[in-house]
Amino acid sequence: MPFVRFTGFEKNVVETVAPAIVEDMAAIANIPQEIVKIELLHVEKITNSPQSVEIFMFPREQEKHDAIAKMINGHLQSQGFTRTHIFYILLQPSLYYKEGLPLNEIPRKTIHEA
After folding, report:
1. Which of 51, 69, 76, 101 could link 8 by a cystine bridge, Cβ 3.0 to 4.6 Å?
2. pTM of the shown model
């Protein structure tokens, strides 16, 4: 957690930008890199749908959400994608379960990981 899900992109594009997105997102959100999940969704378009990036994560300060969206947009623009829709689906730690138990708090980097 968080999950960054790409829709409408080729796999090679996502694989190209993924390492930088993981590194930058972890730094901005103050979380360990290993908990950032990158996924490529395969959807069947019924109507005209834009390329998009869905970010499932716990709430942060607005400035951090803005910085993450700007960072992802920058990495995609560097690959020639200029019209990507980026949006958040915010989750609550108390409603996110691991092994049947709620997290109850947002994971953060510890001093040793910094």
Report:
1. 51
2. 0.90
